[in-house]
Design brief:
Number of helices of chain A: 13
Structural class of chain A: alpha+beta
Number of strands of chain B: 9
Radius of gyration of chain B: 14 Å
CATH topology of chain B: Archease, Possible Chaperone, Chain: A, domain 1
Radius of gyration of chain A: 21 Å
CATH topology of the largest domain in chain A: tRNA-splicing ligase RtcB
Number of strands of chain A: 10
Helix content of chain B: 25-40%
Number of domains of chain B: 1
CATH architecture of chain B: 3-Layer(bab) Sandwich
Oligomer: heterodimer
Number of helices of chain B: 2
Distance between the termini of chain B: 27 Å
Shape of chain A: globular
Distance between the termini of chain A: 65 Å
Number of domains of chain A: 2
CATH superfamily of the largest domain in chain A: tRNA-splicing ligase RtcB
Helix content of chain A: 40-55%
Largest interface: A-B, 33 and 29 residues
Shape of chain B: globular
Structural class of chain B: alpha+beta
CATH superfamily of chain B: Archease domain
Largest sheet of chain B: 5 strands, antiparallel
CATH class of chain B: Alpha Beta
Strand content of chain B: over 45%
């Protein structure tokens, strides 16, 4: 059993577990956080899961846990690892069921004082523009052919449909259309499960929230992002929805036979790996890149919903 | 009859399932997952589906079974509550399930995972624990 005494403090808020803790570890494990965060991580299976990640073939330098570390399945939540692309391995379960899950923040031209009297109406307007909830279907009606275009063009599709602008694409990784994507590598079941959900936020920890900038720690950074004290901003957290869940399910299943073809031992079947250069590895990378295109397009669609509502409010409130 | 209970998990959901037979284990796992997902109307007309699965071992078969029910549940907007097995071995399942319309969804379950998964045979019972990603 791993205890706090097994960790060495490398520098303030960085704790390292050396490879001699378990001979199967290929790299040390690091937790970034206060002593309290480390103690909390040791109270469930988070650190055990981080050690499992440190055992994966091809991992580079460290298995790292961010301050939000808590128990997941396979990787701990908050876990980060890099793997050699050339000659390395990929783990669909390690990437997880919510491919390209991420947060986008939109700065508005509104202030807290301006929206304060209208919060209920604003919430209703945003909910209509960006449906959320368990299994909620999206406001965007797509055919399978349309979904194929989303997978092929990513955020470029959102721009063509008026859900994003050129400047959105400039602010998105690889212009919102990642290289090496191959839509045909996305299983039919993933397309079927994802189709009705395109354009909805989902549930769980996905959210759209209206915030106020109440403190600025670094003036230059805030200025670069166009942020001011008292400004209303909107944060959108979503991912690949049912499309990504099913991509992961199908590829974790397909990878289960990989240990019979490659001499690889993993500590947890959910973390099953295959070489990036293998047929299943290449297919998974192509599918997940396509999936990331769709989730990028999805955030573009919400951005439009939010921007449209905020612009209407801006115009109304400033009259 | 098998039994299931929810066990503690920091962020996701986890089930402990116990049964004297493999059929009861698979049935109890499916019922436990459906109960965590939501409520359905068993008096409404049911939707029957046939399921045929082949896997490398019993753990993979169990996860395939649960993920198949999740997928079919999303397709039909049903929760599956009734099951018939024509054949069930450690690596093969042939059977059918009947689903009923969801009236209240509690949790969106993304997938059943292989995390720390083993199906053990202890004191005449099959025992396993399954983590569900939500």
């Amino acid at each position: 059993m791993i205890t706090k005494g097994d960790f060495q403090q490398i520098r303030p808020n960085v704790w390292e577990l050396a490879t001699d803790c378990d001979p199967r570890m290929r790299v040390p494990a690091r937790v970034v956080g206060t002593q309290k965060i480390l103690e909390a991580a040791l109270s469930d299976r988070s650190v055990e899961q981080l050690v499992n990640v440190a055992m994966l073939p091809g991992i580079v330098k460290y298995a790292i846990a961010m301050p939000d570390i808590h128990q997941g399945y396979g990787f701990p939540i908050g876990g980060v690892a890099a793997f050699d692309y050339d000659g390395g391995f990929v783990s669909p379960g390690g990437v997880g069921y919510d491919i390209n899950c991420g947060v986008r923040m939109l700065a508005t031209h509104l202030t807290e004082a301006e929206i304060a009297p209208y919060l209920d109406e604003l919430a209703s307007a945003l909910f209509r523009a960006c449906p959320s909830g368990v299994g909620e279907e999206g406001g965007v009606r797509l055919t399978q052919k349309d979904l194929g275009r989303v997978l092929a063009r990513g955020a470029g599709w959102a721009r063509e449909r008026g859900y994003a602008t050129e400047s959105d694409l400039e602010r998105t990784e690889s212009g919102g259309c990642l290289a090496e994507a191959r839509p045909e590598a996305v299983p039919d079941r993933a397309r079927s499960r994802g189709l009705p959900q395109m354009g909805s936020l989902g549930s769980g920890n996905h959210f759209l929230e209206v915030d106020v900038v109440d403190r600025i720690y670094e003036q230059d950074t805030a200025a670069a992002f166009g942020l001011l004290l008292g400004q209303v901003v909107v944060q959108i957290h979503c991912g690949s929805r049912g499309l990504g869940h099913e991509v992961c399910t199908q590829y974790v299943r397909r990878f289960q036979s990989a240990p019979q073809r490659y001499p690889i031992v993993v500590p947890d079947r959910e973390l099953v790996v295959a070489p990036v250069s293998s047929e299943e590895g290449r297919d998974y990378m192509a599918a997940t890149q396509s999936d990331r295109r769709s989730s990028g397009a999805l955030r573009g669609r919400f951005r439009t919903g939010v921007c449209t509502r905020c612009m209407m409010w801006h115009t109304t409130l400033r009259r | 009859m098998g039994s299931w209970s929810e066990i503690a998990h920091t962020a996701d959901l986890a089930l402990r399932i116990e049964a004297h037979t493999l059929e009861d284990l698979f049935r109890a796992a499916a019922l436990g997952m459906a109960d965590l997902a939501g409520e359905s109307n068993p008096n409404a007309p049911g939707t029957a589906v046939t399921i045929a699965l082949d896997a490398g071992d019993v753990e993979a078969l169990l996860i395939d079974w649960l993920n198949e029910l999740l997928y079919l549940g999303h397709e039909t907007q049903c929760l599956f509550l009734s099951f018939q097995f024509e054949a069930l071995t450690m690596t093969q399942l042939r059977g059918s399930a009947v689903g009923f319309p969801v009236v209240q969804q509690k949790t969106y379950i993304k997938a059943a995972t292989y995390h720390n998964l083993t199906v053990r045979h202890e004191q005449g019972q099959f025992v396993t624990e399954v983590v569900l990603d939500v």
